[in-house]
Every structure is written in C-alpha cells, then in structure tokens.
Write a structure and sequence with these properties.
The structure is a homodimer of 276-residue chains. Helix content of chain A is 11%, strand content 37%. With 276 residues, chain A is mainly beta. In chain A, β13 and β14 form a beta hairpin.
C-alpha cells in the first residue's frame, strides 16, 4: 500500500458499522476483541453501538452511554437498530439495540453532543505517584504469567496495556489488598485516542478483583461511560477501582486521563464478581 | 386513623404505580417532589420507573438503573411501559419508558435482583471526619438563606437533608473550593430507607457546583444508580462530588452509606452545568 493512503486502524475496522434501511445498521463483530473464552469485550461492543448512534445523530461525539448487557454477543454479523430520541443544538438522545444471529445482546442509551476545546473549570488530577509508562509492565509481554485457567484475551493484543507495578503485584504472584488497577493504554497500532476509543478503554482492564488475587471472568451487567473531552494524542492513563464486592456483585469505577493529564472519561459498571 | 392501621408514607404514595394492560402501568407524578420551578426531581422519577420495572420482574430489588432524561416530565398522570428482557435466577433486565401527557420523558434500563444480607468482602468506608447528624445544617431550616433566584424545592420538604457544615459554606455565603456536598438524609415522615428510597437519595442533593457558589439548576442528562445492599434503618449519609466541570457539562458522583456505615448505593450522572 502506498505511503499516502492511510491504512484503516484495527479499531476502526473492527467497530465499523454500515448504514441500512429503517435505521438498522449492520456490523461484523470481530472475534479478536475477546476477553477470553470467545467472550467479546463490553467496551468494544459499546464502541460499535456508539458508532450506530452517531449515524443517527446530528452530533459527532458520544458523551454519555448506558448499556445493559443482556447476554454475551457472538462474533460475526450483527444488526444495530438505532431509534432517535429528542435532538437539539446541545445534545441528542438515541437508543441502540445490538443483536447477533441469536437475538438482542446489548441495549444502549446514547447521548451525543459536540465536544470542544474548553479548558476544564474543575477536573480531577492524575493520581499522585503514578509510574511513568516506561516503568510499567506490559500485560501482553507477561502473557506467560497468566493465572492458571485464564486464557490471554485478544483484547490485550489490540489495546496495549502497561500496568503500573504499584497495582500489578498479582501478575507476579503477590496480590495486593486494594481492588485497584492502574495502566497506561493505547491501541497496539498506535491509532490515536478519540471519544470512541475512550468508550473501549472504559472497560479495557482486567477485573479489579484480580488485584486481590481473585481471578476469573467478571461479566458486565450494566455499564455507563461518560466522555468528557477530546483526548490528546498519546497514551491514556486508566484507573479502575471497585467500591464494593459483596453478595456476588462487583462495581468498577474507571477514570481516564489523556497524555496531558486531562480527565477525559469516567465509567462505572456493575458486574458479577468472580468466584473464589 | 386507628394506631394499628399504618398510614402510607409520602414516598410510597408519590411513587405508587398501578398495573395496567399489556405491561403499561399508570402513576400520578406528584408536584411536591420538585427541585424548583415545577421541575420534578430526577431521582424521584427514577424511583417511579423502578416500581414499574418491579411489577414486570421476578426479582424484588432494583440493583442497577440507567436513565436518559429526554425532557422534563410534568406532574400529573403518567404511563410507564415496561418491556421485560432476559430474566434468570440471578437477575432480570427490564426497559421502562415513562411518558407524561405530552409524550416520552424518561427512558430507563433496570436490572433487578434479590439482595441478601451478605457482609461485604470489600467496601468503601464512610469518609473520615464526617460531622454527626446532630451537628449538621437542615436545608429546610435554612430556606430563608436560599441563594437569590433559587426557590425552595418541594424535594427538601420530602427528604430531610442535613448538610455537613464542612461542605456547606455556600449556605452561609462562603462557598468552598471543592465541588463536594455531604449530607445525612431521611424521609421527613421517617419512612425507613430501602432500595427504592436509595434511588431517590442518589439524586437528592443540590448540584455539587453550589458548593463552589455557582447556583442554578443542573438538569440531569443521564443517571446511573447502583444499589448494593439493603440499607439499615435510620439516616443515610450521602456524598456527591463533581469530577469535572467543563464545556457546560458537569458530572456528579454519589456514594451512599447506611446508618451502620455500609456502602449501600452509588450513582453517577452527567448534567448540564449551571451558568456561572
């Protein structure tokens, strides 16, 4: 391919949606964005749904997305039915239902708007003491250290994830006492971040319970993502924290800063807690 | 009324829903739960929607709710159309659309489950240094100090709200520098808290920007509430914090603890920021 024809990034290819009749778009869900066992990552699926919402919206950026994960979506052909709601100069609402060959898998409410270059009046700073990216641990590079029974997910090959060693004791067999994970992330092909990328990054880390040495899959039940600003190029810093693990439930609270230290996204999800 | 006939609480009366045909329930939205200017409180509306979801669910408790506020709902008759989704032994999904006489106002995804008496394995503790309820400021008792142009909302008469003086400088004309509000809350008629009450409490404080002396209404765009446990009787402690105020947008992040200090609910909303 000649140098002057930009190649589509893996993320853009894997989240592409194609407009269809009556507000029903189509996509092909990519098996390469799984979290193990063929289960597609929830943030990846939400980015696909966000693209379908943008097709139906007068605004270019998803700023709030709330998704109910009805069941695991299978890789392969999918339909995305977008139902526009009220739309105005400031924001627009759209509902999106993602269905695979078996039926509905993900129901999403998307608010779109137009993000600008406004400096924040108030913004949470980057946590103190974060390890610079060059001092962090590559998850992909430590795949041979994966906990027993945990397959290395495709997601970690798509999203380069560098764990802050301060929250990565579990990788080396010495789990910590706080359900917190912190990592620098970017796409492996160095596609720069944008609001759609932040939607994937907002669910891209392993379950925070892994920090405690409790491994296993933590299926997302409901996920809300807020995109607060257009991210600058470069690595994003992601911090995920569980506020409570109880009765088989776990929440995960994400904050994402861009390479300039600006808070650019937040998310919270309710998930089922891994056993054990 | 004889002593042995319990009177229905104001909250239970104001959030009552009546089953109808084809999954369409009815309610009468109570003008007494406004946040000023006749605008009904978002948490109150979400509790009404939660009741409609429970009618359609095999489980008794809302554990995750995500709502898009399409436009302000008017007091008076409303319909609630519940569409059941997948339901199992652990959880069930239901979509609820609340419409007033004009049309759809609130679109909600509700996950229901059965909360038990599980002790948490991990839970965020009550913040250090919280002022005991007897040392806090009653919002209703300071109504005469309401900022210029701010009408005293009905909500403050329904939900007794005692502001921690450490975050209440704005009440006395000396705003702080952090967008944080903390208060003890309970229903004015002392109805005890339950999951439905927590849904209202998760949006019951004034906008956190008031802590900075920026008064005005901050309309909710999207709100997610997680209910994590059955709350013990008594006052609940609510802390609300904005992570970022930028470009006309504001997030509000709530944590709610019950009278035993157990984290019982969390919420996050994206709202429009009051103009400076």
């Amino acid at each position: 391919m000649p140098d002057d024809v930009p190649q589509q990034s893996a993320f853009d290819a894997a989240t592409a949606v194609h407009p269809g009749a009556d507000g029903v778009a189509t996509a092909v869900l990519d098996p390469g964005w799984d979290v193990g066992g063929g289960v597609l990552n929830g943030g990846y699926l939400l980015s696909v749904a966000a693209r379908a919402a943008l097709l139906a919206s007068p605004h270019p950026h998803p700023v709030a997305l709330s998704a109910s994960y009805l069941r695991a979506a299978a890789a392969g052909p999918a339909t995305l039915t977008a139902t526009p709601g009220p739309a105005g100069r400031t924001l627009a609402h759209t509902a999106v239902l993602l269905a695979d060959a078996t039926g509905p898998a993900l129901s999403v409410q998307v608010t779109t708007a137009t993000l600008g270059a406004d400096a924040p009046e108030v913004a949470l700073p980057v946590p103190a003491g974060v390890t610079p990216v060059e001092g962090c641990l590559s998850i992909a590079g430590h795949a041979h250290l994966a906990p027993p029974g945990v397959t290395v997910p495709g997601l970690t090959r798509q999203v380069e994830t560098r764990l802050d060693p301060l929250t990565a004791g579990w990788v080396l067999g010495t789990p910590g006492e706080e359900p917190v994970l912190r990592a620098w992330v970017r796409f492996a092909d160095e596609r720069e971040p944008d609001p759609l990328a932040l939607v994937t990054f907002a669910d891209a880390l392993p379950p925070t319970s892994w920090a405690l040495g409790r491994f296993g899959w933590a299926p997302t039940v409901q996920l809300q993502v807020l995109v607060r600003a257009l991210p600058a190029p470069g690595w994003c810093l992601v911090e995920a924290r569980a506020g409570e693990i109880a009765g088989g439930w776990l929440d995960e609270d994400y904050r994402i800063w861009d390479s300039t230290g600006r808070l650019v996204a937040q998310s919270r999800q309710l998930a089922r807690a891994p056993r054990g």
